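Protocol step 4 of 6: structure prediction from sequence.
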Amino acid sequence: MNDKIIREVYQVLENRRDHPIDSYTSRIMQDDDKKAEDKILEKVGEEAAEVIIAAKNDENLVYESADLIFHTLLLLVYKGVDLDDLYQEFERRRG
């Protein structure tokens, strides 16, 4: 597997930000600046907690991890962070 699906999801999120439709991701990014950011950050925190619980209970870890990664990508798109910056950071850490 490569990063194709991550890039596809990221592009969909960018498109929903730039060309809003009636969708969860468009709506969450279209609130006024502070409210949108707060909602996205709340979701990231909520999903992180659900990953912790899933790991402790040994169930739904993949599902909850996908939710956390999705909302992290949503945050990056909202904040205008280029996906390649994330990949470069991983490469830098790999040394």
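Step 5 (inspection) to follow. The chain has a mean pLDDT of 95.
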